[in-house]
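[Discussion] Sanity-checking designs against the backbone

I'm trying to build intuition for which residues belong where. Below is a structure token string of 118 positions. I'd appreciate it if someone posts a full sequence so I can compare it with mine line by line.
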């Protein structure tokens, strides 16, 4: 069964950095677009960064120039490097695997908390 396991969240000071990891099991993985989302208390979940199976990337305007998404298909892993963190980045961050066939669902990780203090 497909499973996504996230790690790397924590408490950091404004201006600091964190590197989130998402390890996927039970999937071919290399064919799947991947994404990082975040959800702050009382707010809607939003896309932070996305990466295609071929490595093309896209970012939310609020994180452009600060965050970098990457993947290694041989390791079944996706990362989100977060630099110059701001208090506004505080949220639960979720990894998502996007299905490429209609017969299978998208999958989400359990989430990892990122807290940025001022």
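Best answer:
Here's mine. Compare freely.
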């Amino acid at each position: 069964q497909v499973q996504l396991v996230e790690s790397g969240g924590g408490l950091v000071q404004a201006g600091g950095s964190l590197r989130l990891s998402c390890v996927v099991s039970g999937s071919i993985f290399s064919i799947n677009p991947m994404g990082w989302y975040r959800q702050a208390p009382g707010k809607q979940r939003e896309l932070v960064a996305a990466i295609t199976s071929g490595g093309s990337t896209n970012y939310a305007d609020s994180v452009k120039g600060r965050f970098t998404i990457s993947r290694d298909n041989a390791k079944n892993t996706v990362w989100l490097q977060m630099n110059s963190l701001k208090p506004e980045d505080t949220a639960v961050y979720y990894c998502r695997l996007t299905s490429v066939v209609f017969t299978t669902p998208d999958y989400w990780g359990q989430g990892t908390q990122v807290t940025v203090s001022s």
